Each structure stands twice: as structure tokens, then as C-alpha cells.
Amino acid sequence: MPNERTVRVAELFKSAAECPEDERSIFLDKACAADPDLREAVESLLEFNEQSLFLKQPALDLAAESLTKSGGLATDDRIDNYRIISRIGSGGMGDVYLAEDVELDRKVALKLVRRGMSTEDVIRRFRYEERILAGLNHPNIAQLYGGGVTEDEIPFFIMEYVDGIRIDQYCADHNLSITVRLELFRKVCSAVEFAHQHLIVHRDIKPSNILITKEGETKLLDFGIAKLLDPDRLAAGDPTITIARVMTPDYASPEHVRGEAITTASDVYSLGVLLYELLTGTRPYRITSNRPEEIVRVITTQEPERPSKVVASASCRGSTGWKPVPHFRGDLDNIVLMALRKEPQRRYGSVAQFSDDIRRHLEGRPITAHRDTIGYRTSKFIARHKIGVAAAAAAVVALFGGIIAFAWEASLASAQRDKAVVERNKEERLSGFLNTVLFSSDPGWYAPAGERGQPLTLEEAVEAAAQRSSKELADQPDTLGKLQRTIGMSYRNRGRYDLAAKYLGWSIDNYRKVYGDNHSEVVEAKHLLGTALFLGGHSAEAEPLYRQTLDFYRAAVSKGNSDSLKKLFEILNDLAYLLRRKGEPAGSEAFAREALQYESHFKGGDRAIVGIVLGHLAMARQDQGDLDGSEAFQRQAVEELRRLSGAPRLELAQAIIVLADLLKTRGNYREAESLNDEGFAILQRLVGDTHLSTVLSLNIRAELFFLQGKHAEGQELAEKALATMKQSLPPGHPLTAFPLATLGTMQSKNGRPDLGESHLREALAVREKTFPKTHWLVAIVATALGESLAAQDKFTEAEPLLLSSYTQIKAMLGEKDPRTIEALQRIVALFDKLQRPEAAQYRALLPPQPTQTN
Questions:
Q1: What is the dihedral of CA 95, 97, 101, 102, to 10 degrees?
Q2: Reduced to 3 states, what is the DSSP secondary structure of residue 514?
Q3: Which residues contact 88 (CB under 8 A, 6 or more apart)?
Q4: Nearest to 58 by CA among 280, 314, 353, 256
Q5: Residue 843 burial (CB < 10 Å; 0-12/13-18/19+)?
């Protein structure tokens, strides 16, 4: 066993190796202040580590072994319930043994700190690895079963034993096709991405750490040098985050060999090397020297050959008996080479993106790694739709042709100023064509004539248009602004509000260069940007844009400009909606009524927006406690939209389910259910089961079932609505509050208030981020949460919540509103349960119950 000084040298060496190079001297000054010989020994090991940096067995391991001449466990030795069969691996801190779990009769891998290495520092690192593994429960990662300490206090842990062969050997032995190799590789990506989601970088991805079992399942092994991305420690500048450059050089990223920060991009790079090898049978670089400076030079400067070129070479033969797969080129070349880019920021942004590009390649879809050329995306679109979608393919081809002509006309206009008017007319026609094609998936009445309600996936075309136009139309800011506005509107219609805001912001910048700030083109773009921001949850940024637009169109209409009437009507409608969400129903109503002053000017299909404004007016009246007025205006909205020609559209379905929800609140369950079923059927046909409006209608059906005594059916539908919405929306999205509150209330009433409390707290957190805390939509969840807490005898927390939420609801909706009455009933129930005299006081405030129509 090594003496205490030897162990101390080992400890200091490992700690120093993990310090940044410019901090090592400071560390050693403190650690070895009174012992120059100790410092000399540590520095000697550090120098040895640098010189032997890229050996197959890293210098850190060699140094550890040189300091700890230890014996191992023998066959049939026992540790707890595990019988040692043989040693199967060794590392710098411990050994790995194949063992038998005698209780469960299964083989396991037992990892044990090497005898003589069980210092405090080593045990801490060993436990660190155990902590990493404990959080990685994934089918493609070797699992941690547990751990313990031996009788002589040496820690160990038990892992899944993987009986398999390394992935490259498996591909060679079975002569797998490219497709099968790619599917295997995607399983590896799944495991690595899972680790990244748990803030863990593997740092040692290579074939020997990826085994394929007899069943063909992929297993990722050895997180022994993984890096835990602890944001708090990173922010604090914890020196242990800087990793010693211990690696297998063939799979190490440029930043790794340079000793720079290791991130998830480093694993992306190592996966790129692995994929290169699986496709070609060889590695992207020829590393023939162990000299550190030569290895760094090769990895950081040498560009790998395209994999297809390597495969085509007759000399392409691997040491594992690899046989050439069928030749390939194009997409796979670009996918692999993007992962192998020298700069981390130019690689795939995540392993998931890397894997998704492979999936897109396998499906014959465009990949993000390909140079974005119009011809490339067109060919991909046509290849996917050879049968049955000739019109769609033609639309894409026409779109690209239109963009080319668009750019050509713009440049011609620049050269021939005397033909500016003619060119502008052509530009308008082309922009109109783009609108027709790109908006073809809009299921509303504002969609162009033709295939309404028949979505056409053209996102590839949009991106191609954006990238080409930004270069070719840079000297024509007005033309570029128009195209960017078109693209932004397309993204808005598809719910991509972040991208919509980006392109619309760019269009405003380009318009200003030509027109200044107070021009109709700039103002219209501001309105569109405001809508994208509002729909994306940024109301505070949207409101000033809306108000600037409103001032412009009010002034135009006051001067007799009838062409601005529709724009004024739209912005008044948008402000009515925004102020309602902001908790200002009186202001919302004022804007809605101002808009309706102009409703007689709208004819035919243009009257769709009249129905929408009537809906906002209905909601504003509800928010002020006028349920009669709210119902009347909402019925007008539905009838207005029913009168429009053609098949029922999205706006009608949404208006119908809003009316159904209002009637449910008023106790008219029979008509509410009939209307909700009608709206649900329209939504299913137009936008499918997973659209947010469809899910909200499902949630209303769940509430109606529950209110009519069908408790089990209602809760089942509420659970389905919540699951569907959570799959479609990011955490914390405002709409998730509806099914969360519904399910939480049902669970509380069904005898599981503990589950109900969890869902209601989540719903309350969402509502408080969406609305002012005094809004009745916040209070309505708070009162339900109070009921849940009271059911669990959490009276101290329940009482103030019930009292304050009742006050808020009554203040906005009035004392006769059913929701106010329900909040009051919950207070009475609480005081009755506590046998408090206040129960009589609050019971006296209860009005007669409204008659329910069942």
C-alpha cells in the first residue's frame, strides 16, 4: 500500500491537473507552501501528463497506477451479495469487475475504487460519477443499479452488465446498410442528448464505449470522465469545472485538445467522428505521432475528406474488416462535415438537431446542413410528393421562379430609373403571388380563395426566399422590406411568432431607410409586428406599436381616407383583445364599440372581422359582470359568422365554443353541450384533434360532463386535454392554465385534493404570469386552490386564499355571477367545517341559486 506522502502527491496531481493552466501555480503555491519537494514531485507528474497527453491510456491513469501498486479482487471474492467472476476493465481511480448478483441471479458490472486510492479526493470523484449515473435512466445508457461500501470502507457501485460488441465491429460483422447504421447512430444520439438534457457532457464518445447487444440494442457506457454542467458552479467560476485534457485523441474535438471549455458541442464533434467512421471504416484524420503539438495541429487545422470520397477510394478498408457500403454523396457528406466543423458555434446546436437532420435525410426531406439553394429544396419537395400533389409541387416551383424574377426585377429597377412605375407594378404582382402561396395553410376567412383549409407545407420555401432575398435585394431596401413582411406574415399564420417578429422587425428597418417613420408601409409593418409580439406573449412590447398604428389610421380616416377604414377597424379590434388580456375590460369595450361604429362599411367576407369584434365586446361585458349582455353579444358574433358564405371556418368554430363556455357558466348545460359539439366537429375537420382550439373545446366537454354528474368521464377527458396541450405547447404557456385548472378542480372534488393542489398551483402560476394578479381569471383558480387546501385540512393557508379570491371575483364580476357565488360557497363550507360563527355571516350573502337547464 502506498505511504501517506505518495497518496498526497496523487491527490495534489489530480487537483492541479483540473485547474486552468494559468491558475496551477497559485494552487501549488498554497498547497505546497511548506514543502518544496512535494511541489517538485507534483510538477514532475504534471509535465509527464502533458508529454503523454494523447496515449491510449491517458497519463492521469498511468500516473495513478505508478503511485498505487495495488492488487485486485480474485475470482469468487464476495462483496455484499456480489460474487466476482473476473476483472473486465480498469481506470485511474478504480477497477471494473464482472460479478454475479447471487440474490437476483444476474450478471452485473461492479466498479470499485482501487485499493490504496480511497483518499477523500478520490472517493469524492467516485461519488461524483455515481451521482451522474444515478440521473441517467435511459434505455440506451447502461443503468446504475445501486452502490455501497465494503467492510474496509471502499466505495463501489453496481451497474448493468452489457454483453455486447462495439458498434463499429457490429456494423462490420453484419455488413449493415447505410440506413441501418444511421438508425443505430440515432440511438446513440438519443442517449447523448438525454445526458445533455441532464446537464452532463460525456466527453469520451468512441466505439469502445458504445456496445450493441445480442438483441441489437445500443448501450452507451463509461461516464467516468463526464462533465457535470452545474450552472451555479459555472457561474461561480469553480475551477473543478475545467477538465484535464484526458482523452482518446482520434475522437477529441479541437477545443478539447487545446484545453478550452468543454460543452455539448464537443460531444457533437465526437459523434461526428463516430459517424464518419461508421460510414467510411476510417477516421477523419491520420494521427501518426504521439507528439502533442502535432496532434493539436492535425485536429485543429486539417480538414477531413468528404466521406463519399473516402468510400469511393479503393484503399478504403478498416482494421475491423469493414466492407464498403454503397456509395453516397450529398446530404450525408454535409451532415457529417457540419458536425466536424472546427468552430463549436458552427456545428449543430444540439445532438437532437444532428439526429433530426439524419432523420430528415432518411425521409428524403431537406436537411439543415445543406447549403440552402433553391434548386436543392425544390428537388427535395418534389421527390417527397411525386404522386398526388402535383399542384403543391408546382406551387413551390412557381414560388422559386417568382423569387428569382422578384430579385431580377428589383435589380432592373435600380438600373433603369425611368421604368420605376412598371417595375413596381410587377413587384406588387409577385408579392401578391407569394401571399397566395405562403398563406395557403391559413384556415381562416382571410385565407386567399382556392384550397382554403388545405395546409401546404412550404417552410423550406420560406427559408430559401429569406436567405436569397437578404443577399440579392440588399441594395433595394423597399423591395426587401416587402418580401420580409410577407415572410413574417407567413410565419405568424403558422404560429411561429418568434420568427415572425424577427422578419417583421427587419422589414420595418428596411422601410424606414426608404420612407422614413410616418409612412403607411412602416405603420402597417408595425401593426403586424405588434400582432406577432402579442400572440407570442409580449403584450407590453405590442401595445405601444398598436397605439402608434391607431393614431396614424384615426388621422387618415378623419381626413376622409376610406381605404384606411379596414386598417382602423383591425387595430381597434386588436387593442380590444389586448386590453382584455391586460385586465382592463372597460378600455377593451371602448375600443370594440368604436370599431363597431364602422361595421356598415364592411360587406361579404370582410364581415368576418365584425363577428370577431362582437366576440371581444362580449368578453369585455363578461369581465365587468354583465352576463346577459355578454351572451347577447356572443350570439350576435356567432350569427354574424354563420351568415358568411362557404363552409364553416375557424373563426365560427371558435365563436361557437366561446358561447358554449359562457352558457355552461350560466347553467344552460344542454345548449352548451350541443354548441360545443358543433364547434368541436368543425375544428376536427379544419385543424385536427391537437389544435389548441380543439383541445379547449375538449376541455369544455370535460367540464360539462363533470357538472352533469359524469365525474369519471369528465376527469378522463380533462386528463386527455391536459396531456395533448402539454405535448403541443412549451411549459408555462397561457392556454395550459385551462385544462390544469379543470383537472385540478375535478381531482379536489373527487377525493384527491392532493393531486388537485399540484395542478391548481401550476395553473395559478401560469395565470399570474399572463394576467394581473387582481384579474378574476387568476382569482378563479385561487379559489379552487383554496377549496383543495381546505379539503386537506390546510386551513391556515386556505382561509386567506378563499377570502381574497372571493373579493377579487366579486369586484370584477359582481355578486350575482355564478363564479362569485361558487367562491362564496367555498368560504361558507370552510367555516362550517371549522364550526366558526362567520359561516352564518357569509351564508346570508348567498343569493338564490339560478335555475339550471339540464
A1: -110
A2: helix
A3: 96, 97, 98, 109
A4: 256
A5: middle
Report the pLDDT value the prediction gives residue 120, as an integer from 0 to 100: 61
What residues contact residue 639 under an 8 Å CB cut-off, 6+ apart?
Answer: none
Torsion angle, CA of 522/448/644/570, rounded to 10 degrees?
Answer: -10
Do residues 267 and 257 touch, judged by C-beta distance below 8 A? no
- Confirm if 377 and 460 have CB atoms less than 8 A apart: yes
Instruction: Name which of 173, 165, 196, 170 is nearest 183 in CA terms.
Output: 170
* β strands within 161-232, DSSP E: 164-166, 200-201, 210-213, 218-220, 227-228
- Residue whose entry in the numeric block shows the C-alpha cell 410528393: 385
Side-chain half-sphere of 31: how many Cα atoms within 13 Å?
23
627-642 and 650-665 helices, crossing angle to 10°: 160
Answer whether 769's CB lies under 8 Å from 795's CB: no
- pLDDT at residue number 830: 94
Contact 486, 504 (CB under 8 A): no
CB neighbours (10 Å) of residue 351?
25
The DSSP code for 853 is B
pLDDT for 558 equals: 87
Residue 557 is given by DSSP the state H
Nearest to 204 by CA among 244, 135, 260, 252: 252
Contacts of 641 (CB under 8 A, 6+ apart): 608, 611, 649, 651, 652, 655
pLDDT at 785: 95
- Residue 745 contacts residue 738 (beta carbons within 8 Å): no
10-residue stretch averages of pLDDT, the chain, 854 residues long:
57 71 79 82 64 37 40 81 85 76 87 62 59 70 79 80 91 90 93 81 86 90 55 34 47 82 87 93 76 76 85 52 52 90 87 89 78 44 45 42 44 46 43 41 43 46 61 74 79 76 90 86 90 84 92 88 85 91 90 92 86 93 92 95 82 94 94 94 86 91 94 93 84 87 93 94 90 89 94 94 94 91 94 93 81 49
**Residue pair 83/105 in contact by the 8 Å Cβ criterion:** no
Dist. CA 296–CA 257, nearest whole Å: 6
d(CA 102, CA 104): 6
| Residues 210, 248 contacting (CB under 8 angstroms) | no
Element (H, E) at 315: none
> Are the beta carbons of 117 and 70 closer than 8 angstroms?
yes
Give me the DSSP letters along 659-701.
Answer: HHHHHHHTTBHHHHHHHHHHHHHHHHHHH-TTSHHHHHHHHHH
> In angstroms, rounded to a whole number, what is the distance separating the alpha carbons of residues 722 and 746?
13
Q: Would you tell me how many other CB atoms lie within 10 Å of the CB of residue 419? A: 13
- Contact assessment for residue 209 and residue 271, using Cβ atoms and an 8 Å cutoff: no
| Cβ atoms of 117 and 124 closer than 8 Å | no
